[in-house]
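queue> pop job 88
queue> type: inverse folding (structure -> sequence)
queue> payload:
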């Protein structure tokens, strides 16, 4: 009988910590859906790694990140064997993301027959999505209705594939072409506390076009109907 893994949203998790967690906690086959182009993601990953290497205030958290940064570019047998069991998909638009989720099937396990695990987050098959909110920005679906539709599709894909949905969001830049770029620094909870209108196609007004017409709701309140919010430590401790 298939297990049920509760859909989870990670909060206050940096890009490097998220990738490290995936490599350490997933079971084959797993998939990471990245909501930008491959080129943009690789450029951001490289910039993030360089920024981490320049950080001289090595607290325990920074030390772990720095150690992972070094290991990420060291092609050890363990890293090569682990990374090949994670399938990557790049969906830079909302349309491509929804189409991918609607037709998603888990990739074939390159290591052989899959194994069933009982504890979520403890070596479970993972369907991860990075920056699911950013891909809504600038579209008429940046609303409670549009975000709910996408999360419903993501959860349906995870359930029928017997995988755990794991979402991580990094705050994006505002305005123009920078709107879809990842940010290196993470502000706790910021992407999830933003207000959005209830329905798709709502209009903005005001001099800066940042005020929604009609009733709004916090994104976290919308997503909490579908997912649990967890810090990285809480996720690792889930039983």
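queue> result:
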């Amino acid at each position: 009988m298939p297990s049920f893994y509760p859909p989870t949203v990670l909060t206050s998790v940096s890009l490097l910590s998220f990738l490290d967690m995936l490599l350490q906690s997933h079971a084959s086959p797993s998939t990471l859906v990245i909501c930008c182009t491959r080129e943009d993601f690789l450029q951001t990953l490289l910039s993030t790694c360089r920024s981490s290497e320049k950080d001289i205030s090595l607290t325990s958290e920074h030390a772990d990140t720095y150690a992972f940064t070094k290991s990420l570019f060291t092609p050890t047998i363990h890293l090569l064997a682990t990374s090949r069991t994670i399938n990557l998909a790049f969906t830079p638009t909302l349309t491509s993301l929804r189409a991918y989720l609607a037709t998603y099937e888990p990739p074939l396990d390159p290591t052989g027959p899959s194994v069933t695990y009982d504890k979520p987050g403890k070596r479970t098959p993972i369907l991860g999505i990075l920056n699911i909110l950013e891909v809504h920005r600038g579209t008429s679906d940046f609303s409670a209705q549009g975000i709910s539709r996408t999360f419903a599709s993501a959860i349906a894909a995870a359930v029928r594939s017997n995988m755990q949905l794991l979402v991580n969001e990094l705050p994006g830049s505002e305005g123009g072409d920078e709107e879809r770029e990842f940010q290196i620094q993470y502000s706790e909870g910021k992407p999830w506390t933003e207000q959005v209108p209830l329905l798709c196609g709502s209009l903005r007004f005001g001099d800066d076009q940042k005020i929604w017409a009609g009733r709004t709701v916090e994104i976290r309140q919308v997503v909490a109907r579908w997912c649990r919010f967890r810090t990285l430590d809480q996720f690792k401790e889930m039983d």
